[in-house]
């Protein structure tokens, strides 16, 4: 329980600090830089979370066919399982 409250407290502190500093300046705002390494980490962490969520859920099997006029294809058969 304590480990979940620490990020919440930091988030509240950051928002409070931004509110105070932006009300005292002429051009309020925030600048941030993110590196490619941080973006790659975010993608990796996000994919792990999505994979874990999909393993926990039971998705139904889907099959059928559909006409795709905008691609100028008469019909497409599809079959999704597990």
Automatic annotation (TrEMBL):
<keyword id="KW-0929">Antimicrobial</keyword>
<dbReference type="GO" id="GO:0008289">
    <property type="term" value="F:lipid binding"/>
</dbReference>
<protein>
    <recommendedName>
        <fullName>Bactericidal permeability-increasing protein</fullName>
    </recommendedName>
</protein>
<keyword id="KW-1015">Disulfide bond</keyword>
<comment type="subunit">
    <text>Monomer. Homodimer; disulfide-linked.</text>
</comment>
<keyword id="KW-0325">Glycoprotein</keyword>
<dbReference type="InterPro" id="IPR017954">
    <property type="entry name" value="Lipid-bd_serum_glycop_CS"/>
</dbReference>
<keyword id="KW-0399">Innate immunity</keyword>
<dbReference type="GO" id="GO:0050829">
    <property type="term" value="P:defense response to Gram-negative bacterium"/>
</dbReference>
<dbReference type="GO" id="GO:0005615">
    <property type="term" value="C:extracellular space"/>
</dbReference>
<keyword id="KW-0044">Antibiotic</keyword>
<keyword id="KW-0391">Immunity</keyword>
<dbReference type="GO" id="GO:0045087">
    <property type="term" value="P:innate immune response"/>
</dbReference>
<dbReference type="InterPro" id="IPR032942">
    <property type="entry name" value="BPI/LBP/Plunc"/>
</dbReference>
<comment type="function">
    <text>The cytotoxic action of BPI is limited to many species of Gram-negative bacteria; this specificity may be explained by a strong affinity of the very basic N-terminal half for the negatively charged lipopolysaccharides that are unique to the Gram-negative bacterial outer envelope.</text>
</comment>
<dbReference type="InterPro" id="IPR017943">
    <property type="entry name" value="Bactericidal_perm-incr_a/b_dom"/>
</dbReference>
<keyword id="KW-0964">Secreted</keyword>
<keyword id="KW-0732">Signal</keyword>
<feature type="signal peptide">
    <location>
        <begin position="1"/>
        <end position="23"/>
    </location>
</feature>
<comment type="similarity">
    <text>Belongs to the BPI/LBP/Plunc superfamily. BPI/LBP family.</text>
</comment>
């Amino acid at each position: 329980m304590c480990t979940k409250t620490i990020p919440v407290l930091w988030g509240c502190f950051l928002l409070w600090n931004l509110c105070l500093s932006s009300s005292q300046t002429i051009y309020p705002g925030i600048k941030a830089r993110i590196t490619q390494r941080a973006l790659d980490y975010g993608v990796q962490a996000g994919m792990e979370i999505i994979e874990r969520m999909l393993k926990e859920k039971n998705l139904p099997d889907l099959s059928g066919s559909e006409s795709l006029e905008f691609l100028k294809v008469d019909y497409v058969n599809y079959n999704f399982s597990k």
